[in-house]
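does this look right to u?? zinc ion version
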Amino acid sequence: MLLDEIRKLSLDYAQDNVGARRHLHANPELSYQEYNTSKFVANRLKELGLNPKEGIAGTGIVVLIEGRNPGKKTIALRADMDALPIQETNTVSYKSQNPGVMHACGHDVHTASLLGTAKILNEVRNQFEGSVKLIFQPGEEKNPGGASMMIKEGVLDNPRAEAIIGQHVMPLVSVGKVGFREGMYMASSDEIYLTVIGKGGHGAAPELTIDPVVIAAHIIIALQQIISRNASPKQPTVLTFGKISAEGATNIIPDEVKIAGTFRALNEQWREEGLKKIKKMAEGMAESMGGRCDVVISRGYPYLANDPALTRRLRHAAEEYVGKENVVDVELTLGSEDFAYYSHQIPASFYRLGTRNETKGISSYVHTPTFDIDEDALTIGPGLMAWLAVKELMES
Ligand SMILES: [Zn+2]
Ligand SMILES: [Zn+2]
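got this back:
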């Protein structure tokens, strides 16, 4: 039976996949600079006799694995390849050799896992109809998002993918388990940069100044009311300012204050409305106090919604693969992901691969210097992805 064969291949190749993951983990590269990673991926694919297309959106790679009757249907699988500007503090043998750069979001795992999937699908290609398109993309962690660039370069076309599946490590879910969610899953994310301009002067003579620190304080408090009074209580949304700088002193009122933050939403209409209100309120408040506020908005990724019908089918297929007891629900999050761009083009589903193991001391969250995974996850990830793709191809 194909399911058993895929499961067996996933176990047989586990050691090799762990080796690939460790190589990538030790040699991380920042967003849009994944040159060696990309070469490594392309070489591995060529060793399988495949014909990868390289240099898409810089370092991106696409490869097609054709089964019988390859034109019948195409399903896409996606991995991201970039690392983060974090200094790793783990002391494992495969720790980052690149100072200040670390695979702290598990994209090494996603890449190694999808290489494993390539090997498995390549071996069973006579046992499925249709094609599987593997996408290795750059720059998930940084605007404008590698996914948006890959889409512009046409990775979803020729042949057109009917659906796309993404896998991401999850340190909140135990190794051996996988997590799914139908419908709305992750938020849109925009960066807000405010510069409040007043008129500096002596701290003891405020009447001769326009104090931008006081104006900034009013703006920060007022903007929180956009969330509490304008957004629907039924619609999760967040506005956080994590950075304020006023370069004055105890007795000096500065000329300006800079504020930076993030705005998250799960609804495009509210996202547009919220951004407009933020700009209007910040400008109006500064003006009413005699100052000025320059508002710059850097647009990030849109919300990510998992196609309900697709996700339901994938969940069922995952239950066949890992057992019903090992498939869990994951909660809505206001984190963001550039996989969202694919979900605005074709039916998409983004699921989680459990990587937590407290008995091994592996529980750190992603984007921390102590993040790591239980590599037993690599006995599951590659085969599960292959099985999900094959099952989707069987859907008429
Ligand atoms: Zn990340
Ligand atoms: Zn990530």
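The pocket of zinc ion (ligand 2) is lined by residues 105, 107, 140, 168 (CB under 6 Å). idk if thats expected tbh
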